Amino acid sequence: MDYKPTRPENNDNISRDSPVKEALVLLSGVIAFFLVAYCILGFMVDWAVARISPKMEAAIFSGFQVPPGIGPTEDLSCQKSFQRLTDGLRKCCDIDYPVKIIVIHSDTANALALAGGSIVIFSGIFDVVRSENGIAFVLAHELGHFKHRDHLRGMGRGIVLTALSALLTGSGSSITQLTAPGVHLTQARYSRQREAMADAQALETLVCYYGHAGGATEFFQAMGSAHDPGRLMPYFASHPECESRIAALKKAVQDQLFDIRAVTPLPAVFN
Hints:
Radius of gyration: 25 Å
Number of domains: 1
Helix content: 40-55%
Protein backbone atom coordinates (compact mmCIF):
# COMPACT_ATOMS: atom_id res chain seq x y z
CA MET A 1 0.00 0.00 0.00
CA ASP A 2 1.51 3.32 -1.11
CA TYR A 3 1.69 6.27 1.34
CA LYS A 4 0.02 9.47 0.11
CA PRO A 5 0.54 12.56 2.32
CA THR A 6 -2.57 14.69 2.82
CA ARG A 7 -3.49 17.74 4.90
CA PRO A 8 -5.88 17.24 7.85
CA GLU A 9 -9.33 18.65 7.30
CA ASN A 10 -9.18 20.70 10.54
CA ASN A 11 -6.02 22.17 12.03
CA ASP A 12 -6.35 24.78 14.77
CA ASN A 13 -2.78 25.94 14.18
CA ILE A 14 -3.46 26.93 10.57
CA SER A 15 -5.87 29.77 9.81
CA ARG A 16 -8.02 29.59 6.73
CA ASP A 17 -8.43 33.39 6.68
CA SER A 18 -6.32 35.70 4.60
CA PRO A 19 -3.10 36.88 6.36
CA VAL A 20 -3.92 40.43 5.26
CA LYS A 21 -7.36 40.21 6.85
CA GLU A 22 -5.89 38.89 10.09
CA ALA A 23 -3.28 41.68 10.15
CA LEU A 24 -5.99 44.31 9.67
CA VAL A 25 -8.13 42.82 12.45
CA LEU A 26 -5.12 42.74 14.78
CA LEU A 27 -4.14 46.32 13.93
CA SER A 28 -7.72 47.53 14.41
CA GLY A 29 -7.84 45.87 17.82
CA VAL A 30 -4.56 47.46 18.93
CA ILE A 31 -5.67 50.93 17.77
CA ALA A 32 -9.07 50.51 19.48
CA PHE A 33 -7.33 49.49 22.71
CA PHE A 34 -5.03 52.53 22.54
CA LEU A 35 -7.93 54.90 21.91
CA VAL A 36 -10.08 53.51 24.74
CA ALA A 37 -7.13 53.55 27.18
CA TYR A 38 -6.19 57.08 26.12
CA CYS A 39 -9.78 58.36 26.53
CA ILE A 40 -10.16 56.80 29.99
CA LEU A 41 -6.80 58.16 31.18
CA GLY A 42 -7.62 61.53 29.58
CA PHE A 43 -10.81 61.77 31.64
CA MET A 44 -8.75 60.91 34.72
CA VAL A 45 -6.34 63.75 33.86
CA ASP A 46 -9.26 66.19 33.53
CA TRP A 47 -10.64 64.99 36.87
CA ALA A 48 -7.26 65.51 38.58
CA VAL A 49 -6.64 68.93 36.95
CA ALA A 50 -9.99 70.21 38.21
CA ARG A 51 -8.77 69.50 41.75
CA ILE A 52 -5.40 71.27 41.40
CA SER A 53 -5.80 74.82 42.72
CA PRO A 54 -3.74 77.68 41.23
CA LYS A 55 -1.89 77.90 44.56
CA MET A 56 -1.00 74.21 44.40
CA GLU A 57 0.00 74.58 40.73
CA ALA A 58 2.30 77.51 41.59
CA ALA A 59 3.95 75.43 44.32
CA ILE A 60 4.41 72.40 42.05
CA PHE A 61 5.97 74.40 39.23
CA SER A 62 7.81 76.98 41.37
CA GLY A 63 11.17 75.71 40.07
CA PHE A 64 10.12 75.90 36.40
CA GLN A 65 12.28 78.25 34.30
CA VAL A 66 12.29 79.41 30.72
CA PRO A 67 14.50 77.04 28.69
CA PRO A 68 18.11 78.24 28.26
CA GLY A 69 18.92 80.11 25.06
CA ILE A 70 15.64 82.06 24.91
CA GLY A 71 16.17 84.53 27.73
CA PRO A 72 13.64 87.26 28.49
CA THR A 73 14.09 90.78 27.13
CA GLU A 74 15.95 93.32 29.22
CA ASP A 75 13.44 96.03 28.27
CA LEU A 76 11.74 96.43 31.65
CA SER A 77 9.34 99.13 30.39
CA CYS A 78 8.00 96.64 27.83
CA GLN A 79 7.62 93.96 30.50
CA LYS A 80 5.82 96.36 32.87
CA SER A 81 3.46 97.61 30.15
CA PHE A 82 2.54 94.06 29.21
CA GLN A 83 2.06 93.22 32.87
CA ARG A 84 -0.34 96.16 33.40
CA LEU A 85 -2.37 95.18 30.34
CA THR A 86 -2.50 91.54 31.46
CA ASP A 87 -3.56 92.48 35.00
CA GLY A 88 -6.45 94.53 33.59
CA LEU A 89 -7.54 91.70 31.30
CA ARG A 90 -7.20 89.21 34.13
CA LYS A 91 -9.94 90.96 36.11
CA CYS A 92 -12.30 90.70 33.13
CA CYS A 93 -11.44 86.99 32.84
CA ASP A 94 -12.25 86.33 36.53
CA ILE A 95 -8.73 85.09 37.28
CA ASP A 96 -7.95 86.12 40.86
CA TYR A 97 -4.34 84.94 41.05
CA PRO A 98 -1.25 86.68 39.58
CA VAL A 99 -0.07 85.82 36.08
CA LYS A 100 3.53 86.72 35.24
CA ILE A 101 4.46 88.05 31.80
CA ILE A 102 7.77 87.09 30.16
CA VAL A 103 8.68 88.85 26.88
CA ILE A 104 11.29 87.03 24.80
CA HIS A 105 13.14 88.42 21.78
CA SER A 106 12.37 86.11 18.89
CA ASP A 107 11.24 86.18 15.26
CA THR A 108 8.36 83.93 16.27
CA ALA A 109 4.94 85.57 16.42
CA ASN A 110 3.30 83.63 19.19
CA ALA A 111 2.45 83.40 22.88
CA LEU A 112 1.92 80.48 25.23
CA ALA A 113 0.67 79.77 28.72
CA LEU A 114 3.11 77.95 31.01
CA ALA A 115 2.31 75.82 34.02
CA GLY A 116 2.90 77.77 37.21
CA GLY A 117 1.15 80.98 36.07
CA SER A 118 3.33 82.59 33.37
CA ILE A 119 2.60 83.79 29.83
CA VAL A 120 5.49 83.93 27.37
CA ILE A 121 5.22 86.54 24.60
CA PHE A 122 7.59 86.18 21.63
CA SER A 123 8.48 89.64 20.30
CA GLY A 124 7.90 88.61 16.68
CA ILE A 125 4.23 89.20 17.40
CA PHE A 126 4.88 92.98 17.22
CA ASP A 127 5.59 92.55 13.51
CA VAL A 128 2.11 91.17 12.78
CA VAL A 129 -0.16 92.91 15.30
CA ARG A 130 -0.64 96.66 14.95
CA SER A 131 -2.99 97.62 17.79
CA GLU A 132 -3.17 97.24 21.55
CA ASN A 133 -6.51 95.48 21.08
CA GLY A 134 -4.85 92.87 18.87
CA ILE A 135 -2.17 92.19 21.48
CA ALA A 136 -4.83 92.19 24.20
CA PHE A 137 -6.79 89.46 22.36
CA VAL A 138 -3.70 87.24 22.23
CA LEU A 139 -3.09 87.77 25.95
CA ALA A 140 -6.77 87.16 26.72
CA HIS A 141 -6.60 83.91 24.72
CA GLU A 142 -3.75 82.67 26.93
CA LEU A 143 -5.67 83.81 30.01
CA GLY A 144 -8.56 81.73 28.68
CA HIS A 145 -6.29 78.69 28.77
CA PHE A 146 -5.51 79.46 32.41
CA LYS A 147 -9.19 79.84 33.25
CA HIS A 148 -10.05 76.51 31.63
CA ARG A 149 -6.84 74.89 32.97
CA ASP A 150 -5.94 73.85 29.41
CA HIS A 151 -2.19 74.14 29.98
CA LEU A 152 -2.37 71.44 32.66
CA ARG A 153 -4.80 69.28 30.68
CA GLY A 154 -2.54 69.39 27.62
CA MET A 155 0.53 68.56 29.68
CA GLY A 156 -1.21 65.70 31.48
CA ARG A 157 -2.62 64.16 28.30
CA GLY A 158 0.76 64.48 26.59
CA ILE A 159 2.41 62.57 29.43
CA VAL A 160 -0.33 59.92 29.30
CA LEU A 161 0.10 59.51 25.54
CA THR A 162 3.87 59.17 25.80
CA ALA A 163 3.78 56.82 28.79
CA LEU A 164 1.04 54.63 27.27
CA SER A 165 2.98 54.15 24.05
CA ALA A 166 6.25 53.44 25.85
CA LEU A 167 4.78 51.04 28.42
CA LEU A 168 2.68 48.97 26.04
CA THR A 169 4.86 48.70 22.97
CA GLY A 170 8.26 50.16 23.82
CA SER A 171 9.59 53.48 22.67
CA GLY A 172 9.92 53.72 18.89
CA SER A 173 8.51 50.25 18.22
CA SER A 174 6.76 49.39 14.96
CA ILE A 175 3.37 49.07 16.67
CA THR A 176 3.80 52.52 18.20
CA GLN A 177 4.54 53.95 14.77
CA LEU A 178 1.39 52.32 13.38
CA THR A 179 -0.96 53.37 16.17
CA ALA A 180 0.46 56.87 16.75
CA PRO A 181 -1.58 58.59 13.99
CA GLY A 182 -4.88 57.31 15.38
CA VAL A 183 -4.12 58.42 18.92
CA HIS A 184 -2.61 61.71 17.73
CA LEU A 185 -5.81 62.37 15.76
CA THR A 186 -7.81 62.14 19.00
CA GLN A 187 -5.34 64.39 20.85
CA ALA A 188 -5.36 66.99 18.05
CA ARG A 189 -9.16 67.13 17.97
CA TYR A 190 -9.25 67.68 21.74
CA SER A 191 -6.62 70.45 21.45
CA ARG A 192 -8.57 72.25 18.71
CA GLN A 193 -11.69 72.21 20.88
CA ARG A 194 -9.77 73.82 23.78
CA GLU A 195 -8.30 76.46 21.43
CA ALA A 196 -11.80 77.34 20.19
CA MET A 197 -12.97 77.70 23.80
CA ALA A 198 -10.01 79.99 24.57
CA ASP A 199 -10.91 82.14 21.52
CA ALA A 200 -14.48 82.50 22.77
CA GLN A 201 -13.24 83.45 26.25
CA ALA A 202 -10.77 85.96 24.75
CA LEU A 203 -13.56 87.67 22.80
CA GLU A 204 -15.65 88.11 25.97
CA THR A 205 -12.59 89.41 27.85
CA LEU A 206 -11.76 91.87 25.07
CA VAL A 207 -15.31 93.26 25.08
CA CYS A 208 -15.25 93.54 28.88
CA TYR A 209 -11.94 95.48 28.84
CA TYR A 210 -12.47 97.81 25.86
CA GLY A 211 -16.26 97.84 25.59
CA HIS A 212 -16.17 96.50 22.02
CA ALA A 213 -14.73 93.65 19.93
CA GLY A 214 -12.40 95.65 17.68
CA GLY A 215 -9.06 93.89 17.08
CA ALA A 216 -10.38 90.40 17.89
CA THR A 217 -9.41 88.95 14.50
CA GLU A 218 -6.31 91.10 13.90
CA PHE A 219 -3.73 88.44 14.80
CA PHE A 220 -5.34 85.68 12.73
CA GLN A 221 -5.82 87.99 9.73
CA ALA A 222 -2.15 89.02 9.92
CA MET A 223 -0.97 85.42 10.14
CA GLY A 224 -3.10 84.49 7.14
CA SER A 225 -3.55 81.14 5.44
CA ALA A 226 0.19 80.74 4.84
CA HIS A 227 0.53 79.25 8.32
CA ASP A 228 -2.45 76.91 7.97
CA PRO A 229 -1.87 73.20 7.28
CA GLY A 230 -2.87 71.58 3.99
CA ARG A 231 -6.30 70.19 3.06
CA LEU A 232 -5.91 66.96 5.03
CA MET A 233 -3.50 68.09 7.75
CA PRO A 234 -6.09 70.18 9.71
CA TYR A 235 -7.34 66.89 11.19
CA PHE A 236 -3.89 66.36 12.74
CA ALA A 237 -3.26 70.02 13.69
CA SER A 238 -3.41 71.13 17.33
CA HIS A 239 -4.89 74.53 16.40
CA PRO A 240 -7.85 75.41 14.15
CA GLU A 241 -7.11 77.14 10.86
CA CYS A 242 -6.90 80.95 10.97
CA GLU A 243 -9.74 81.22 8.46
CA SER A 244 -12.12 79.14 10.57
CA ARG A 245 -11.13 81.02 13.74
CA ILE A 246 -11.87 84.36 12.08
CA ALA A 247 -15.24 83.07 10.88
CA ALA A 248 -16.12 81.77 14.36
CA LEU A 249 -15.20 85.08 15.99
CA LYS A 250 -17.21 87.11 13.47
CA LYS A 251 -20.23 84.86 14.04
CA ALA A 252 -19.89 85.24 17.82
CA VAL A 253 -19.67 89.04 17.46
CA GLN A 254 -22.82 89.01 15.33
CA ASP A 255 -24.76 86.59 17.55
CA GLN A 256 -23.91 88.44 20.76
CA LEU A 257 -24.45 91.88 19.19
CA PHE A 258 -20.97 93.13 20.15
CA ASP A 259 -19.92 96.53 18.81
CA ILE A 260 -16.77 96.96 16.75
CA ARG A 261 -15.10 100.36 17.13
CA ALA A 262 -11.75 101.94 16.36
CA VAL A 263 -8.84 100.15 18.00
CA THR A 264 -6.20 101.68 20.29
CA PRO A 265 -2.83 102.12 18.52
CA LEU A 266 -0.02 99.91 19.70
CA PRO A 267 1.98 101.82 22.36
CA ALA A 268 5.51 102.76 21.30
CA VAL A 269 6.96 100.74 24.17
CA PHE A 270 5.76 97.56 22.42
CA ASN A 271 7.68 98.35 19.20
